[in-house]
Write a structure and sequence with these properties.
Distance between the termini: 19 Å
Strand order of the largest sheet: 7-6-5-8-9
CATH architecture of the largest domain: 3-Layer(aba) Sandwich
Number of strands: 9
Number of domains: 2
Number of helices: 11
Radius of gyration: 19 Å
Shape: globular
Bound molecules: N-carbamoyl-L-aspartate
Strand content: 15-25%
C-alpha cells in the first residue's frame, strides 16, 4: 500500500505518468466518471482549507466515488483528546483512502504508520504540501510544455510556506532550474533547503526586492504571509504587506512570464493583475482537481 507524504515519494518517471493521466482525465472526463464507483474518500482536516479539501471532494465525486469527513478538528474526536493514530484506525474501517491536513509537522506520517488505507498528506504544518506541488508541477508542465530550463522566483513567506518547501524539493530533480528567493530577512527560506541546493550545486540567489529580479523570471510563485504560524501578531502586521504584485511591477516582467500562487491570496497580488494573461493562478487551481483525480486512481491502483 502506498501513501503520499512528500512529492519525492514518486520518481520523476512516476510523476510523468501521473501527469499524463491527469491530462487524459482533463481531455476525456467521461471515461473516468465511474472509475471509483463504490469507493469512499475520507477528508480529515484539522486545519482550515477551501481548495485542497474541496478539490479532493470534487475529484472523488467526479470519479464516481463518495466522500465523508470533517473540516474542523473541533467537530472531531480530536477535541476529546483522540490521537491521529487512533482516528486513522477508525477511518480505515469507513473509507478506502484518506486525505489528511494537520497543523503538526509529521502528523499524516504518524497516521500512515497505523493506517489500513492509503493516506495523503494534504498539508502538515509548515513542512510539506505534496498535492499542491503536484498541482504546481502539472500547471508548469501544461502551460510551458516541460519541467526544466527555467528561472523561478519564489516570493513572500519562504520560511513558513509549506507549498514553497515542497515545490523546491520537487524541482531540484529537474534539469537546469535556477531559484530566486525573494523575501524579507525574517521570512527567508529555511537553512535545510539552502543546504540541499548547495549539496546539489543548484544555482540560487536570495534577494529582498521583487522589482530587482522581475525581468529575469520565467515563473513568479507568489505566497501569502502565513499568519497562523507567527508567534506574535506584531511581526505579522509588519510583514504582511511587504510584497504587493501590481500592474506596474508586471510591466517589468517578460511577456511570457507566468504568475502562480497556491492561493488563498490576501494582499500580495492586487486584483488588477487577474486580468493579465500571465496570471495563471486560477488555471492552477483547476489543474489541482485533475491531478488529485489521477492521484486517487494511482493510490487505489485503479486502471481505466
Ligand atoms: C496553501 C496551504 O494550505 O499551505 N493553500 C493551499 O492548500 N492551496 C497556501 C496557503 O495557505 O497560503
Amino acid at each position: 500500500m502506498r501513501h503520499l507524504m512528500s512529492p519525492l515519494d514518486f520518481t520523476t518517471q512516476e510523476l510523468d505518468q501521473l501527469f499524463d493521466l491527469a491530462c487524459d482525465i482533463e481531455q476525456h472526463p467521461s471515461r473516468y466518471a465511474h472509475a471509483c464507483d463504490g469507493k469512499i474518500l475520507a477528508t480529515c482536516f484539522y486545519e482550515p482549507s477551501t481548495r485542497t479539501r474541496l478539490s479532493f471532494e470534487s475529484a472523488m465525486t467526479r470519479l464516481g466515488g463518495r466522500v465523508i469527513g470533517f473540516s474542523d478538528a473541533a467537530s472531531s474526536s480530536a477535541a476529546k483528546g483522540e490521537s491521529v493514530s487512533d482516528t486513522i484506525r477508525i477511518i480505515s474501517c469507513y473509507a478506502d483512502i484518506c486525505a489528511m491536513r494537520h497543523p503538526k509537522e509529521g502528523a499524516p506520517m504518524v497516521a500512515a504508520q497505523k493506517s489500513g488505507i492509503p493516506v495523503i498528506n494534504a498539508g502538515d504544518g509548515g513542512h510539506q504540501h505534496p498535492t499542491q506541488t503536484l498541482t504546481d508541477l502539472l500547471t508548469i508542465r501544461s502551460l510551458r510544455g516541460n519541467l526544466g530550463n527555467f528561472t523561478i522566483g519564489l516570493c513572500g513567506d519562504l520560511k513558513f510556506g509549506r507549498t514553497v518547501h515542497s515545490l523546491i524539493r520537487a524541482l531540484v530533480r529537474y534539469e537546469n532550474i535556477r531559484f530566486l528567493f525573494i523575501s524579507p530577512e525574517e521570512l527567508r527560506v529555511p537553512d535545510y533547503i539552502i543546504e540541499l541546493l548547495k549539496e546539489k550545486n543548484i544555482p540560487y540567489e536570495e534577494v529582498i526586492r521583487l522589482e530587482d529580479v522581475m525581468p529575469q523570471l520565467d515563473f513568479l510563485y507568489m505566497t501569502r504571509v502565513q499568519k497562523e504560524r507567527f508567534f506574535n501578531e506584531e511581526d505579522y502586521v509588519r510583514l504582511k504587506d511587504f510584497y504587493i504584485l501590481n500592474a506596474a511591477k508586471m510591466e517589468l516582467a517578460k511577456k511570457e512570464m507566468l504568475v502562480l500562487h497556491p492561493l488563498p491570496r490576501v494582499n500580495e497580488i492586487s486584483v488588477e493583475v487577474d486580468e493579465d494573461p500571465r496570471a495563471a493562478y486560477f488555471r492552477q487551481a483547476q489543474y489541482g482537481v485533475y491531478v488529485r483525480m489521477a492521484l486517487i486512481l494511482t493510490l487505489l491502483d485503479i486502471d481505466v
